[in-house]
Amino acid sequence: MSQSNSTQQTVKYVNPAKMLRIKDVMEKLGIARATIYDWLNTKSPRYDPTFPIQRRLGTKSVGWLESELDDWINNRPMSI
């Protein structure tokens, strides 16, 4: 007689990372394209080292992880 050990596996589904293109980022933040690139440009007086970096999606396209943008938004100081 053979004895079998059965184990239950819990499957956890994780939401896949959502990438936002520049127009989506502009809409989400309510800012212009130039502002985003100013925040990314280390030579700009508007440079923001805390702003999420863009990720290369292909040879001619970039995007931002929505979760990183959400974290950045949530960690910004409240305006008075």
TrEMBL record:
InterPro entries: AlpA, Prophage_regulatory_activator. It comes from the Bacteria. This is AlpA family phage regulatory protein. It comes from Klebsiella huaxiensis. The lineage of its organism: Bacteria, Pseudomonadati, Pseudomonadota, Gammaproteobacteria, Enterobacterales.
